[in-house]
Amino acid sequence: MFPEEPADALVRIQRLIRRRPRGGLPGSRLRGAEVELLRLVEARPGIGVSAAARRLHLAGNSVSALVNRLLRDGHLLRETDPADRRAARLLLTAAAGKRLGDWRRRRAELAGRHVSRLDDADHGALRAALPALRKPAATLHEEAEES
Fold first, then answer.
1. How many whole angstroms separate alpha carbon 44 and alpha carbon 53?
2. For the chain, what is the mean pLDDT?
3. Which residues of 15-43 are buried (b: 16+ CB within 10 A; e: fewer)?
4. pLDDT tens-digit series, residues 88-127
5. Is residue 22 pLDDT above 60, yes or no?
6. How far apart (Å, rounded) are the C-alpha atoms in residues 147 and 145?
7. What letter does residue 60 receive in the DSSP assignment?
8. Strands, E, within 1-125: which ranges?
9. Buried b vs exposed e over 104-134: b needs ≥16 C-beta within 10 Å?
10. Which of 75, 91, 102, 123 has the most crowded Cβ, counting Cβ within 10 A?
């Protein structure tokens, strides 16, 4: 059915593009939620655990468990918030920043390699589809923010 086909294709692409670049990277393998949290902390240095949980649409205890694992493995630093000594701020370690950079580079190479195999008509179709794909992404995000 039409509404399910684009979603299925996007999920398959996203899963493979997220997982494939992790193979061969040094250190323990990072799970999808761990990578998402690291990317969020990279984009918003100093974010707190509850704010990260809201942004990722995950339960606070799930994000706390991710934070503890990433702290233990040397990917995150936790600092006390000077404005509120009870709150913690999350920061990436230099090693995590490098690892995310490597992951991002490998992901871009992987996607680029497969997109380059498409003919001009398919390239044009993908470019034309991007605005339409961004709209449900935006409304899904808005809906998640409201709940």
1. 13
2. 87
3. eeeeeebbeeeeeeebeeebbbbbebbbe
4. 899 999 999 998 998 888 888 888 888 899 999 998 998 8
5. no
6. 6
7. H
8. 76-81, 84-92
9. eebbeeeeeeeeeeeeeeeeeeeeeeeeeee
10. 75
Pairing of strands 76-81, 84-92: antiparallel
Rounded Cα distance between 99 and 101, Å, is 5
pLDDT, tens digit, 9 for 90 and up, residues 43-101: 999 999 999 999 998 999 999 999 999 999 999 999 998 888 888 899 999 999 998 99
Does the reported pTM lie above 0.90? no
pLDDT for the residue 25: 58
Tokens 């497969």 sit on residue: 114
Three-state SS for 98-140 is HHHHHHHHHHHHHHHHHHCCCCHHHHHHHHHHHHHHHHHHHHH
Q: In angstroms, rounded to a whole number, what is the distance separating the alpha carbons of residues 23 and 17?
A: 11
Name the phi and psi angles at 35, rounded to 5: -65, -45
